[in-house]
Amino acid sequence: MKAINIRKPAYCMATTDGQSAEITMYGDIYEQRPTDWDGNPVEGQFVLMDEFLEDLKSIEGCKDITIRMNSYGGDAGGSNTIHNRLRELAREGAMLTCIVDGVAMSGGSLMMCACDNVRVNPSSLIMIHKCWTFLWGGYNADELREQASQQDAWDKMQVEIYKRKTGLSDTVIMHMMSDTTYMTGRVAVEKGFADELIEDAEPVAIAAR
Fold this sequence. Notes:
Elements: E1 4-7, E2 11-15, E3 20-25, E4 28-30, E5 46-48, H1 49-56, E6 64-71, H2 76-91, E7 95-105, H3 107-112, E8 117-120, E9 125-128, H4 141-166, H5 170-178, E10 181-184, H6 185-191, E11 196-197
């Protein structure tokens, strides 16, 4: 495999030897680029699902992939799809490592949990919550119940992802999601969402002379 160096506004993918690759993902995840009320594309740091997955093909032969993450989340559907594609690479023998440089919230935490080795800083921030959606217009009770049923299914999807990573029960995870749980790096390790805490070096003592 030749050297790869893909640079997009919200992420980069690179490999020099075809064996180890690094993805820097600093942006929010969407299936399509967000638009304003007039239908005009919104400027921002967006990881667009189709574009990301197409670029991912260029490094899928690498056996060691590190994802450096800072993401506040985005679309649950897009995040779940990317999570599943990353898990496919893992099943094919790739070692996936996620380093949370900043935050991994909502959909970002789903993608983080695709990695079997998650490394966090003490100041990293992980957040999980129940899925939500916007509603406009008029609805009767049956339609609202149907919408709630769909939301329940999305929440169960997230539980499956978190359960595989943490080993926590469905009930515990659902309660954490209901409470919109924020975790520092240390707490994320304690709860099983992360595997390793990146400890800061001790301050250097300077003797007065």
